[in-house]
Amino acid sequence: MENKKETFEYTYSAKRQEEIEKIRKKYMPKEEDKMELLRKLDRDVTKPGSIWSLAIGIIGCLLLGVGMCCTMVWAESFFVLGIIVGILGMVIMGTAYPVYVKVTKRQREKLAPQILALTEELSK
After folding, report:
1. Are the C-beta atoms of residues 100 and 53 closer than 8 Å to each other?
2. Distance CA 47, CA 68 (A)
3. How many domains does the chain have?
4. Is 15 exposed, middle or buried (0-12, 13-18, 19+ CB in 10 A)?
5. Over the stretch 3-19, which tens digit does the pLDDT of each residue have?
6. What is the dihedral of CA 105, 106, 108, 111, to 10 degrees?
7. What pTM, to 2 d.p., does this model score?
8. How confident is the model over 77-100, as pLDDT tens digits?
9. Is 57 inside any structural domain?
10. First CA to last CA across the chain, in angstroms?
């Protein structure tokens, strides 16, 4: 008769399992999650408007800066031109928000059927 001790050792580490799962998810094929698709569509509504309004605002700000330079640095020769360019820059900056609203409204109308259908499907 042999005296064999049969033992079972088990160690569980939640952090280790979590790390393994993270790595595993990177290499798994992406499944189309409807909630994630809904979030993506919602982000897609405001993204183009934000890009356009930022671009317009930056251009207007740069023009305002050029106008200020003309009036303060080269005042003897470009003062009037600096005022005109500065006012033009302020007007362009002022159009950034209305452009954002208009582009976002157009995107919202374009994506509304998809978003509404998806929300209806997820609500069931």
Report:
1. yes
2. 31
3. 1
4. exposed
5. 667 777 766 677 888 88
6. 180
7. 0.69
8. 999 999 999 999 999 999 999 999
9. yes
10. 65
Residue 19 lies in a domain: no
Amino acid at 65: G
> Residue 83: which domain range?
33-123
Q: How many CA atoms lie within 13 A of 107 on its CB side?
A: 18
- Please give the structure tokens belonging to residue 33: 């999650």
Kindly report the number of other CB atoms within 10 A of residue 41's CB atom. 16
Q: Which residue has the tokens 């005042």?
A: 75
Distance of CA 16 to the CA centre of its chain: 32
The one-character DSSP state at 59 is H
Q: Would residue 11 count as lying in a domain?
A: no
Q: Which residues contact 96 (CB under 8 A, 6 or more apart)?
A: 53, 54, 56, 57, 60
Structure tokens belonging to residue 48:
């183009």
